[in-house]
Fold this protein.
Amino acid sequence: MLSKLQKHLSENFNFLKEKKLLIAVSGGIDSMVLVHLLKKLDYDISLAHCNFNLRGEESNRDEKFISAYADKNNIKIYVTHFDTESFASDNKLSVQVAARQLRYIWFHQLLEENALDHILTAHHLDDSLETFLINFTRGTGLEGLTGIPQQNGYILRPMLPFTRMEIEEYARQNGIEWREDSSNASDKYLRNKLRHDIVPALKLLNPSFMDSFQETVANVQQAQSLVQDASVLVYKRIVVELEGKKLYKIPELKRLPNYRAYLYQWLNPFGFTAWKDIYNLIAAQSGKQVLSTGYRLLKDREVLILEPIRQQDNKIYSIEEDADNTTYPIPLKFERVDNVLKSSEESAIFVDFQKLKFPLFVRKWQEGDYLCPAGMNGQKKKLSKYFKDEKFSLTDKEEAWLLCSGSDIVWIIGKRADERFRTRPGTTQILKIEVLK
């Protein structure tokens, strides 16, 4: 196994020999074998151990075991403790996901603070198979069938070519000690059920199953690479990126032979899972949307808009009579002037100061709001109707701010002014209100 790993590192990670490596060590057989191998190959290693405080005294014994091993072998070790269950509860995560997030956040900090180059984990071929089966069981695309990648940025997994059986055999031959995690014996988790029941059955059906799986994953990875290349080319034709949003052009999408495959490829990284609902957006009415944990996909006429979910600001902000400028929620400048200059209502308006009731207010729109637009002889127009006529998307409506005098709208800021407050011949006090860029 030593020579096989040496060959694998030389062919795929030949840059590691001069690097400072941090090995994630749980105390289990996989990570202890990885440490033993890299130590024999004379790599510059240090260890990182997380005590997640999930298994009581057993977790503490794991920590003592790792610390004693590092001390005996003169290897630098970093140890930290997490209140994993509290973090999971506070962030509405499963304990497994919480532990993973805490672990990798800490690893990243260790790299930066100690001038280390890479994190190495001891994931092996059986782990990759279990990940493949978990994704397959839950439903996935090509990417979910590629197993565990051997590299994610600064995280490397040099043990992926090896099976659990090879690792166990090496540990026995070299007298390596390790700790058993009692939770691995429980079928509470899907991964353990697959490990204990499904994987042995597959190996029984085909004694060369792990070789077949490794070859299959390599083929899927190559296919995924081709899909990504094609996706990038089509993306440039279909998607417009604008002010932190992505706009997917529906007419262009419909011309693709299989637009669903492209949508999956583009949207999967944003945490979406309701794929049927997403595909149905193409023919849905404007305003329909699908949510993921941090994003939403919104149908707006001829485009799908992808944007982060933002906390809506529904506060009401007041502006006193003597204000010159406001900075929040939107930067405005107030200036008394002698003449009305020609300007776009998108940038500035001129109003009759004497018609205003102070303080003015800046707020979001509400049902029942109305406007008296210029050219309608003072007739009222519901804001909802104005938005529809002007083809405001749901996002545009949510982001619109109103400048109000009492309950009356003075200006849909940056869009349209109200006729009732405009200056007329004989107006003696003119107030210019300008949006600052």
Observations:
- The first strand starts at residue 20 and ends at 24.
- Residues 243-308 form one domain.
- Residues 146 and 217 are 5 Å apart (CA to CA).
